[in-house]
Amino acid sequence: MEQESPAVVRSVSSSEGRQRRTPSSRQTSHGDSSDLDDFQNYQRFRLKVVSMFGSMASGLFEFGADPETGRISQKDFVRVCVKLEMMNEREAQSLYQHFTNADPWDEEEVVATFKDFSIDEDEWRYVVASKQEATSWPVVGGEAPP
């Protein structure tokens, strides 16, 4: 079992003579998570998405990212990860914070885009156009055209 390293705390005297402590870093707020663990989880996630959907862009589209902007909220991302049994809720939240570089204590909601998943704009536009075209074919006699 890996032990958590103690946070470096610096005391500063205030004008009133009280001691203030420097807040713990984001790293220590994750408890058992480290940058290496986050990176490894992200790589495993990418492999799962590519094996399920063929590419990261296709997977992000199927996760429900907005076709125009490629944006997906943390709430939607976590919901889909849990529904697809890719990871639990805590792992999905941690992963989202990793690739968006979001501060877990920030009140403002951070929204990921296709760029956070290392997808370039041309690939995103191509996948969106392909997926939308595939769903626009008329079905005749119960079969899609060849």
TrEMBL record:
<feature type="region of interest" description="Disordered">
    <location>
        <begin position="1"/>
        <end position="37"/>
    </location>
</feature>
<protein>
    <submittedName>
        <fullName>Uncharacterized protein</fullName>
    </submittedName>
</protein>
